[in-house]
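the two lines:
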Amino acid sequence: MKTVEEIKAAIEQAVPGAGVEIILNPSVCTQHSLRLAPSHAVAVATFLRDDADLALDFLSNATGIDWPDKEVAEKVKVIRTVTKTVDGAEQQVEETVEETRKHVVPGCLEAVYHLFSVAKGYKSPVVIRMKTVNRSDQVQLPSLTPVWRSAEFQEREIFDLYGIVFTGHPDLRRILMWDEFKDHPMRRDYVEPDDFEYEPTAHDEVLARAQAHRAKMADLAAGQEGAGA
Amino acid sequence: MDDGLKIELGKQGVFVTTIEELYNWGRRSSIWPMQFGLACCAIEMIATTMARYDLARFGGEVFRPSPRQADLMIISGTVTKKMAPQVVRLYNQMAEPRYVIAMGACAISGGPFKQGYNVLKGIDRYIPVDVHIPGCPPRPEALLHAFITLQKKIDEQPLTGEGRPRHLDAGAQGEFPVPVQGEHDLEPTSNKGVWPVPITIR
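prediction for all of em together
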C-alpha cells in the first residue's frame, strides 16, 4: 500500500491544485490522514476511487469531529524601549520583557472518511478529512455520496449530530433525531435537556445535575409564590 | 362464598361461581399481546413465545399486529424520544381493557441510556404501566412471571366500585396525551397525571 506521501503526490499529479495536506498521527498506530480542500474534494475522491493503483472503492466509515473555539495563552518575549535613570542621567534603554498574550483559535467542524479497497485488500484505511470554515454559519462541505454511495446515511448522521451541511447530498435530512429538533447533540457545547427530576440512585455527575435541577425548581416555585402574593 | 363449601359442592357435582370470577377468568386466560418490539428485549420476548418457554401455556400466544385487537402492550426495549409519541399513540389506539408490561431496564427507567439526551427515562412517564420487569434483558422466565403477575392482577379486579377495570368505569381517562417532539426535548417531558414525580427518601 502507498504511504500518505505517495498518495499525496499521486493526487497532486492527477488533480492540479488539489491542496492536500498531510496530518501526521504521532501515536503508535501512525494512522496518518490527508486533509482535502473542500473545493477539490469531489475530484480528489473520484481519483482515489478510480485510480488503478489505489482503487479505494469502499468507504467504511464517515464521522465528524467538533473543534470548539479555543483560547490559547502563550508567552512572548517583547523588546521594549524603557526610560530609565542610569548613572544619574535619563536614558532610553531597550529591555526584553515577557508578556502573556491570549488569542482565540477559531473552531471548526471536520468530516472524516475511512477508505478501504476491496480489490486490493488493504489492512489499514486511508483516512481523508475535510474542514469547515467555522462552526456557526459556514458549515458547508461537498458531499462525497456521489462518489461512494455508502456515505449517504453516514453524512446524514453527521448532519444530524454535528451540523455539517453537505452540498450535493441527494437527501439531506436528520436521520436519528426528529425533524423538529434544533440542536446538534455531538457538538461539545450541546446543552442536554434537563429531565433530572427523578434520580433515585444519583451519584457523581448525575447527582450534581439532579441537585442543580432541584435548586432550579425551588427557585421557580419561590418565584411563582412571590408573583402570586 | 366460602372456599371449603365451594369445594364440597364441587364434589357433589355442583359448580358455583360468581359473574366476576367467570368474567375475569375469561379475560386473564386469553390476553393477546401486541406484536411489536423496540430493542434487544424483543428477542427475549420472541424466545418466550417459542416452544422452549411457551407463553401459549398461559393463553398469551396470539400476538396481534394491530393495536385494535390487542389487550396487552409489552414495551420490550429502549424507548427513544423519537419513538415515544408513536408508542403512546399505539397505546391510545388499543381498546379497553388494556394492560402494559414494561420489560427491561430501558423501558422502566431508561436503563444504561438514562443519562443520554435521546432516551426516555421510562415509559411510565406517559402511559400507566401495570407490571415492571427489571433486567437487561430480563430472561424469558421473568417475562412469564410478569405475565402471571398481570393475570393475578386481572383476577383480583372487582367489576364494580373502586379499582374496577377502566372499561367498566365511564369516568376513567381513555386517551393519554401524545407528547410533541419539540426543538430540544419532548413536550411535556412527562404526563404528571400518570406519573407524579416520585418522592425519593434520602
